[in-house]
């Protein structure tokens, strides 16, 4: 049986969810962002108990098709931005339509209706978070970061970064160098 889980965004989430599902007595056959395949076909009580357990760590079982589609869109974007080593060769609309076998316009309308935000804004916010992370590591130049995240130029990356954070990438790095603060606070 396949379970769909909301708010899985990183490898640590996968590890945490796998442990919670196994501790709840289910045998995990496969797990990825947003999805867990278990051997059993659990009853309602077992699923509700699992959902309560997941909820304590900020996760949640998803049981309707629309929510599963939204979570799949988010998982694909998170994967391509945070976990892929190569730049996105398609634009995000083509990538999602291809990966999900749905018309992008349908996905976009559904996402906006349910989330109150656009797919494009979600994609940009994930890229901004990845830029913050890469600037904090200080291992790549701005040009390399722009290439890695499929920006047309470092100038465009800088412009979008400033628009969303209020900081230029250089100012962000300077602030990070002087203070140990959480990236989410900027």
From TrEMBL:
Entry GO MF terms: DNA-binding transcription factor activity; metal ion binding; sequence-specific DNA binding
Cross-referenced SUPFAM superfamilies: HMA, heavy metal-associated domain, Homeodomain-like
Domain of life the protein comes from: Bacteria
Pfam families cross-referenced by the UniProt entry: HTH_18
Keywords attached to this entry: DNA-binding, Transcription, Transcription regulation
Residues covered by the HTH araC/xylS-type domain: 71-175
Gene3D superfamilies the UniProt entry points to: 3.30.70.100, Homeodomain-like
Record-linked PROSITE patterns: HTH_ARAC_FAMILY_2
PANTHER family linked: ARAC-FAMILY TRANSCRIPTIONAL REGULATOR (PTHR43280), HTH-TYPE TRANSCRIPTIONAL REGULATOR EXSA (PTHR43280:SF2)
Name used for this protein in its record: AraC-like DNA-binding protein
Organism: Mucilaginibacter auburnensis
């Amino acid at each position: 049986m396949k379970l769909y889980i909301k708010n899985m965004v990183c490898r640590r989430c996968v590890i945490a969810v796998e442990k919670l599902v196994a501790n709840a007595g289910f045998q995990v056959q496969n797990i990825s962002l947003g999805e867990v395949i278990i051997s059993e076909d659990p009853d309602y009580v077992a699923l509700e108990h699992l959902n309560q357990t997941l909820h304590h760590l900020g996760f949640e079982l998803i049981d309707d098709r629309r929510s599963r589609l939204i979570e799949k869109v988010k998982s694909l974007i998170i994967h391509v931005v945070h976990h892929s080593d190569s730049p996105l060769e398609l634009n995000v609309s083509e990538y999602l339509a291809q990966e999900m076998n749905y018309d992008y316009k349908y996905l976009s309308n559904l996402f906006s209706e349910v989330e109150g935000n656009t797919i494009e804004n979600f994609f940009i916010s994930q890229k901004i978070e990845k830029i913050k992370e890469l600037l904090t590591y200080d291992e790549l130049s701005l040009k390399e970061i722009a290439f890695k995240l499929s920006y047309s130029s470092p100038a465009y990356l800088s412009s979008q970064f400033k628009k969303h954070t209020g900081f230029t990438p250089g100012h962000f790095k300077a602030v990070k160098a002087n203070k140990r603060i959480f990236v989410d606070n900027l």
